[in-house]
Each structure stands twice: as structure tokens, then as C-alpha cells.
Write a structure and sequence with these properties.
Number of strands: 2
Largest sheet: 2 strands, antiparallel
Shape: elongated
Radius of gyration: 30 Å
Low-confidence stretches: none
Strand order of the largest sheet: 1-2
Strand content: 5-15%
Order of helices and strands: HHHEEH
Structural class: mainly alpha
Oligomer: single chain
Length: about 100
């Protein structure tokens, strides 16, 4: 088996281990692999895959925050109003409460 074939085989095995949710030890025992060999390939493939690469990025504008004004009463009710409410209307409301 060539080194390239061996690496591809272990890439598949490591991917299966990650998807399994098992510990390295449990995965190795379940599949009959030497425990140290699984750890070796996990480390080796992590070094290979850690080569930095460029990824496409799209910057989108952030959604506007909707600010609210919340009025809470000691009786337990809460009134939430949009922040665009005119101050004069809010003052009238507060006087009425």
C-alpha cells in the first residue's frame, strides 16, 4: 500500500471516528485498531489540515436593532413600545397611568 493510499484510508477512518462521538480509545477498540495508531493519525492529519488557506468571505450589513422602551408597573404588567414613540405621547401616557 502506498503512503498516499494509507493516508487516504486514515483520513476516512479519522472522519468516521469524529462522526462517531466515541473517544479515540473506544473507537480503536471497537474497530480493532491499535490505540496509539489512531492517536498518531489524528495528530498527523491535524498538522496536514492546519495549513492556512483563504476562504471566500461576504460581508453583509447587520440587521438594524429594534430598540424598545419598556414600562413596568409594581402590579406586574409590562408595556413595551418602539423607541420611535414621540416623547410628548409617552409623557401623556405616563401622566395617565
Amino acid at each position: 500500500m502506498s503512503n498516499e493510499d494509507r493516508q487516504k484510508m486514515w483520513e476516512e477512518r479519522v472522519a468516521q471516528w469524529r462522526a462517531s462521538g466515541l473517544s479515540q480509545r473506544a473507537y480503536a477498540i471497537e474497530h480493532g485498531f491499535p490505540i496509539r495508531q489512531v492517536g498518531y493519525w489524528v495528530r498527523r492529519l491535524a498538522k496536514v489540515s492546519s495549513v492556512p488557506s483563504l476562504l471566500p468571505v461576504r460581508v453583509a450589513p447587520a440587521a438594524p436593532l429594534v430598540a424598545t422602551i419598556s414600562l413596568r408597573n409594581e402590579r406586574g404588567w409590562t408595556l413595551s413600545l418602539p423607541s420611535e414613540v414621540p416623547a410628548s405621547w409617552l409623557g401623556e401616557l405616563m401622566r395617565a397611568l
